[in-house]
Amino acid sequence: MGEGNENRVELVLVNDLAELERLAAEVEAFIERNDLPPGLAFTFNLCFDELITNTVSYGYKDGGPHDIHVRLSTDGTEMRAEVEDDGEAFNPFEEAPPPDLSADIDERRVGGLGVFLVRKTMDHAAYRRNGNRNLVVLAKTLAPMAELP
């Protein structure tokens, strides 16, 4: 399990795609502990799958082990996630090619659809380079609970 309190947790993953399964379980547990809408697990895990797969697959040239830090938090009005790594500098929101959604599926160029989905499913998605580290920040606004009669 990650380190943190009920409404904040930090996980340290190694740059191995097998870690996505552990991350998905931690996201689900975090959402359950904080009584957040269960659908958020799918949304955040979809984004993590895309972003971390890209980092693991393309971010490291040395083939060695690297840590990827994932921080989850909520203040009751939004759920926020940060993904931080020491991979090659890459801003997925500016450098990933946009998908050609008008092209037939068999004719589409590979790449770009995952980042497109991240942007579409999140209310906030931003990138920043801090020294030799990439930081992606994601946030999803939580819909207010309906008032009971």
TrEMBL record:
<dbReference type="InterPro" id="IPR050267">
    <property type="entry name" value="Anti-sigma-factor_SerPK"/>
</dbReference>
<protein>
    <submittedName>
        <fullName>ATP-binding protein</fullName>
    </submittedName>
</protein>
<feature type="domain" description="Histidine kinase/HSP90-like ATPase">
    <location>
        <begin position="15"/>
        <end position="140"/>
    </location>
</feature>
<keyword id="KW-0723">Serine/threonine-protein kinase</keyword>
<dbReference type="Pfam" id="PF13581">
    <property type="entry name" value="HATPase_c_2"/>
</dbReference>
<keyword id="KW-0547">Nucleotide-binding</keyword>
<dbReference type="GO" id="GO:0005524">
    <property type="term" value="F:ATP binding"/>
</dbReference>
<keyword id="KW-0808">Transferase</keyword>
<dbReference type="GO" id="GO:0004674">
    <property type="term" value="F:protein serine/threonine kinase activity"/>
</dbReference>
<keyword id="KW-0067">ATP-binding</keyword>
<keyword id="KW-0418">Kinase</keyword>
<dbReference type="InterPro" id="IPR003594">
    <property type="entry name" value="HATPase_dom"/>
</dbReference>
<dbReference type="InterPro" id="IPR036890">
    <property type="entry name" value="HATPase_C_sf"/>
</dbReference>
